[in-house]
Amino acid sequence: MKKFLMLVVLLVFPGGILPGPVWAGRFWELPSLPSPEKYGDLLIDRLSSANHVKPVYFSHWRHRTKFTCRVCHWELGFSFKAGQTEITESDNRNGQFCGACHNGKIAFGHNEGNCQQCHSGEIAPDKEKFNLLRQGLQKDSFGNRINWAAAIIAERLNPVASIYRADEKPMFYGKKLELKAEWANVPAAIFPHEVHSRLLDCSSCHPDIFSIKKKGTEHFQMNFILEGRFCGVCHLSVAFPMDDCHRCHPGIKMD
Asked: What pLDDT is stored for residue 13 in this prediction?
């Protein structure tokens, strides 16, 4: 961890020369990781508690086995940030947001008898089901400890790209980008479009998160990523976390 923090220091402050107060103790810390079965899970509480209703528990790992990120974050209009989407009970009952699937046909219905299945008020995943899922998929070292990208490429998982069109297929785009660091001793980050295009829509990232112009994204630095911008939109809490340095910077040496 200390070595990684020093790497972050090098990224934020070229040459590793820090102002006095910063060198005295200020550095960027990675968020602590929950247990694998809880990684990516969240409570949605934009309106629930204010209306004396328990917050909604949402499990990312249970949904991502069946649907690509594109379904919820493009087709259904969910923001990437919890609590920003204006979901109401009437919207759900009218087939929007969660109600697009939780209609009694695709998934359990959005009715009073099923309220507690979502409005549980706590992050309490089914650990037994999670462990069974992990047994059949490629392993990883961080996050859910599942290599989701490898599982999809190997067709161990085949999440659908659309809930409205059965023939919808991901747009495969294979270009890799080498994102060179501006500081010495920091190897380039490699961005693979192919893996991301299997799960997302181009508009998921462009132009709001990343400029579509080459080298057009400003302030693309590690300190901003750790604040939840750029790659940090997903790779802090749902996609594999920033702890896995080698996945982005394959040339990095941590010894």
From this structure: 44
- Whether residue 16 is predicted with pLDDT greater than 80 in this model: the reply is no
- Strand 42-44 to strand 176-179: parallel, antiparallel, or no bridges (unpaired)? unpaired
Question: How far apart, in whole angstroms, are the C-alpha atoms of residue 208 and residue 74?
Answer: 13
> What tokens does 146 get?
């599942």
Contact criterion met (CB below 8 Å) for 235 and 241: yes
- Alpha-carbon gap, residue 55 to 123, rounded angstroms: 10
Q: Which of 158, 128, 159, 133 is nearest to 145 (CA)?
A: 133
Domains and CATH numbers, the chain: 2-30+171-248 (3.90.10.10), 36-169 (3.90.10.10)
Of the candidates 122, 97, 124, 121, the one whose C-alpha atom is nearest the C-alpha of residue 110 is: 97
Please report where in the chains the tokens 């790497």 appear, as a residue: 7
Burial of residue 161, with CB atoms counted within 10 A of its CB: 0-12 exposed, 13-18 middle, 19 or more buried: buried
pTM for the structure as a whole:
0.83
